[in-house]
Amino acid sequence: MESNSINNNYQQNSFREYLNLIRLNLGLILVVGITGLIIGIVYALNAPDIYKSTTVIKITKPQGSILNSPLIPEFQDFGSDRFIANEIEILKSYKLRDKVAQALIDSFKFTSNKNNFKLILDNQEKNKIPILLPKEEIIDLLESKVSIDQKRGLDIVEINAESPSPKEAALIANCYAIAYKELNLEYNREQLTSIRKFLAQQRDEKLAELSQVEEALRNYQEQKGIVQLPEQAKALIEQTTDFESKMNATKIDLTIAEKTLNQYKAELAKKDPNINDYIESFATEPYIKNLQLQIADLMTQKDRALSTSKDAQRKNQMIKEFDAKINELREKLNSQLAVYRAGILAASPDEIKELTKKVLEEEVKYQALLASYKKLSEIVGEYDKRLSKLPTSSIDLARLTREQSAYEKLYLQIEEKYQEAIINEQSVPGNVLIVDPGLVPIKPSKPNRPLIIMVGLFLGIGFGIAFAFIRNHFDNTVKTPEDLQNRNINILSWIPRIEGLNNSNKELEFIVAKKPDASASEAYKVLRTRIRFSKIDKESLKTILVTSSRTLEGKTTTSVNLAGSFALANFKTLILDADLRKPRVHSVFNEKRFPGFTDYFFGQVTYDQILRKTGVNNLYYISAGTIPPNPSEILGSSQMESFLEKLKNEFDYIIIDSAPLIAVTDSEILAQLVDGTILVVSANDTEIDLMERSVDLLRRDNLNFLGVVLNNFIYRSGYGSYYKYYYYYSTPTNGSQKEKTKVS
Questions:
Q1: Spatial CB neighbours of 597, under 8 Å, sequence gap ≥ 6
Q2: Residue 564 contacts residue 510 (beta carbons within 8 Å)
Q3: Beta partners for residue 653, in sequence order
């Protein structure tokens, strides 16, 4: 409980100190705050208007071609947040910014109103024809002027564009959305586009080959005349071309499947390099491979049987028989693949399950096509052997006829696949929907002038407070009586700064005589009272040493005014200037320094010659006199002790002004000879560590240390009610009204 009480008191004291620090520096804080306010106003008035346009788009996961049935349902919606995050990165990509920059440049070139553009123009070219910035600079500008934000928890993305021109802001936002939609569609159709381009290339090649074969056949017929092939040769050629066209078509499908598979594998390898081999091992597993070979063999047997049979009823019967066997094998294959697929997908991370499934499907498809191609190649090889057995006169014509028919059928198949590829490509929708296009803003979104002004004010106040705390942190001087009390140092009194007293005007230094009703005079009277009652036995306190840590802290002024206050209280008082380094008491009374007590010690003058009376009743002083080469030895001599005893017998109080404590040992010596010692410190001037060292010296060697006098203390509102009332009641009166003393 006691510990908590101490902590609470400490926190309260700390808070009060911080509050007082702010109150003490209130003027500075207000000046800095007003400066910040003025800067904020100037900036707010001169800041250009910025307009913002927002395009809202909805991004959904791609579902593939509308001609294809959906994939496995349980894997349709995984990783939605990750998908949206990836799309946002695409929106921020350099490639997209490049497309937008080009669109803006094109819009600028083809528009008649160039004033709608500001952001992408070179602002250095004022009062001239508008000039576009370089494309690279526009791309860099877009990165800072366009923000992409996702609506929390939704598939909605906002594209915000800012510009000094409202129409330009709307144009940028809409160009961003359109460019992203086109890029997204391009990515979604990338695989189908690759297939379409491949089929277009194959179509052109096969058409050229078909033309060459037809030309060769025509030339042969013209040279040899019209040659009729036997019916057996025609039937053989027809069967051969059927299988050859199927083989070539299968080869094209195999090539497409291989390209697709390699692309999927490359994408999967970037995410998981080891899984491709794992999938391939499943697809080429002997059981699956054997089933695929059996299916391919049955399909070729079916085609061969149908090509040789002329009976329609028999054909239908064979189709049913072969289809039943093929379907039975496919069911076994699909059943086994389902087991493998479930195992592979269960072991795959969520983010690559979809891609893994595609690789597995393409791998199985590729192996099936490869098996079919091998079987068709075997059959075509058999038919080639049979064609080679035709009569010599018919072989060349049969070969050309076969090639022409095969290329024609192959071309038609490729053309059909090409048209299907075009439809498939065009049927793949984008997964980007522009919900709200960017509108031309009516009002600027920036700057928020009231906010800027308030921020300027608060920043100014904040900087002012920060400066006050920083200055206080590095200012290691005594400022208030609390600085002494917090260090367990007894404070006798605080003396306010004497108004009008400076280096060139010393008239007010003896203020208790010059202005006895001033606040400083009252403070010296308080000091007199506290010294008198600092000891129970008042008669034991007659010689009082006044010293300081260093020079210019006001010890001489304190000595003179303290002595004067005792004299005004009808005590016979003497001021002894024992500062044998830089004596100054005589200057306060506008007299010469010698003869003084050192001259008396050396027998050069009498006691009556060194004792001088002031203009104040009961107040006398003895100056230092001639400065000796050995002040410390003189002050520590038995002659000095005898001299002080002599003075005690003659005066009620002897106030001794001595040299600074830290600089020399004079004050330490005198402190052993007097009844009490006072340390004078100057507010906002004396360093705390220097004061603490002085107090330690006085406490260490004698028990007569009375306390500290805080000199040049300036009252401020942050010092609390006690000081306020002290100053209020210590001010002079004018009639019945009390005037407050203002100290700056």
A1: 576, 578, 610, 622, 623, 624, 625, 643
A2: yes
A3: 573
Taking residue 712's Cβ as centre, other Cβ atoms within 10 Å add up to 22
Q: Which two tokens stand for residue 334?
A: 């699909």
Phi, psi of 295 (to 5 degrees): -65, -45
* Extended strands (E) in 323-466: 432-436
- Of 530, 635, 528, the closest CA to residue 577 belongs to 635
The overall pTM is greater than 0.85:
no
* CA distances (Å), origin 654, targets 179, 436, 487, 542, 643: 97, 95, 29, 6, 12
pLDDT digits (tens, 9 = 90+) for 400-449: 676 777 777 777 777 777 787 777 777 777 778 888 898 999 988 888 88
Q: 10 Å Cβ neighbour count for 566?
A: 28
Say which residues have a Cβ less than 8 Å from residue 372's Cβ, sequence separation at least 6.
Answer: 250, 296, 299, 300
Residue 372 structure tokens: 């079919």
Structure tokens that stand for 675 in this block: 């009844």
Share of the chain above pLDDT 70, in %: 75
Give the distance between the most distant pair of CA atoms in the chain. Answer: 168
Q: Where do the domains of the chain lie?
A: 2-47+447-474, 51-189, 191-427, 481-738
Judging by DSSP bridges, how do beta strands 573-577 and 612-613 pair with one another? unpaired
C-alpha span between 159 and 182 (Å, rounded)? 16
CATH of 481-738, one of 2.10.70.10, 3.40.50.300, 1.10.10.10, 3.40.50.620: 3.40.50.300
Instruction: Count how many Cα atoms sit within 13 Å of the Cα of residue 563 in the half-sphere of its side chain.
Output: 35
Task: Give yes or no for a contact between 618 and 573, defined as CB atoms under 8 angstroms apart.
Answer: yes
